[in-house]
């Protein structure tokens, strides 16, 4: 009669031995050697970083395959893989920006599970977009304007309904003023945008008096 518990224990034992062999293999040394060869021979020190960042990928894969631990295949794993690929393609810079995706991802998870969009690291998302536009397209100016939307975003995420309705007008007006001014060079015309928050606040104050 087949004892399935013995088979299971034997299989677990084989997997643990395989994991030990996987971890014992000197892959970090091999990859570091590749990095120095890549650097000294081709003078590609930045691009050779792809070898270094494959080290945690290697150990995570071993834990996932042999220990069946799915938690090792996480956001860090995919970002390491992505950065290594970008390095090998010659984009170590600005490829390092992908590491900003890690806190952004976990902030989005927190926002989803807590049902609160205010948990999202909106300033970091804007910083990532700003750096991508800057490094890739050279658009450092006027993309900085989007940082003005930060207070508006968190006000809109506020649970205070009165605050959410009243306060975003000013920061939105400033942002529209700058966008129209820089994009169309219509600075005098764009000043008229500030009429909107002024009219709104006058309306709110008159309503309170009544």
Please describe the topology of this protein:
Elements: H1 4-24, H2 27-42, H3 49-52, H4 54-66, H5 75-88, H6 92-95, H7 101-114, H8 122-137, H9 149-156, H10 161-166, H11 168-184, H12 187-190, H13 195-209
Helix pairs in contact: 1-4, 4-5, 9-11
Notes on the protein architecture:
The protein is built from 13 helices and no strands. The N and C termini lie far apart (90 Å). Helix content is 72%, strand content 0%. Helix 1 (4-24) runs antiparallel to helix 4 (54-66) and helix 9 (149-156) packs antiparallel against helix 11. The protein has 210 residues and is mainly alpha-helical.
Question: Which short descriptors sum up this protein?
Answer:
single chain; 13 helices; 72% helix; elongated; disordered N terminus
Task: Summarize it.
With 210 residues, the chain is mainly α. 72% of the residues lie in helices and 0% in strands.
One letter per element, helices H and strands E, the order comes to HHHHHHHHHHHHH
SSE-based structural type: mainly alpha
Q: Given the C-alpha coordinates, what overall shape results?
A: elongated
Q: Averaging pLDDT over every residue, what do you get? A: 82
Report how far the terminal alpha carbons are from each other. Answer: 90 Å
Strand content: under 5%
Over all CA atoms, what is the radius of gyration?
27 Å
Biggest sheet, open or closed, and with what strands and sense? none
Number of helices, where a helix is a run of at least 4 consecutive DSSP H or I residues: 13
Poorly predicted residue ranges: 1-12
The helix content, as a percent range, equals over 70%
The number of strands is 0
């Amino acid at each position: 009669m087949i004892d399935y518990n013995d088979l299971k224990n034997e299989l677990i034992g084989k997997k643990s031995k395989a994991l030990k062999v996987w971890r014992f293999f000197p892959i970090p040394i091999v990859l570091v050697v590749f990095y120095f060869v890549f650097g000294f021979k081709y003078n590609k020190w930045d691009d050779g970083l792809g070898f270094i960042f494959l080290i945690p990928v290697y150990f995570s894969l071993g834990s996932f395959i042999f220990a069946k631990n799915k938690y090792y295949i996480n956001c860090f794993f995919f970002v390491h893989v992505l950065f290594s690929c970008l390095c090998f393609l010659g984009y170590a810079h600005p490829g390092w920006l992908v590491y900003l995706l890690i806190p952004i991802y976990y902030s989005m998870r927190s926002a989803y599970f807590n049902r609160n969009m205010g948990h999202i690291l909106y300033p970091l998302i804007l910083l990532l977009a700003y750096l991508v536009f800057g490094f890739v397209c050279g658009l450092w100016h006027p993309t900085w304007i989007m940082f003005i939307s930060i207070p508006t975003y968190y006000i809109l995420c506020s649970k205070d309904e009165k605050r959410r309705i009243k306060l975003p007008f000013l920061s939105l007006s400033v942002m529209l003023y700058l966008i129209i001014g820089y994009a169309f060079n219509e600075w005098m015309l764009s000043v008229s945008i500030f009429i909107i928050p002024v009219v709104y606040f006058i309306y709110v104050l008159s309503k309170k008096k009544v």
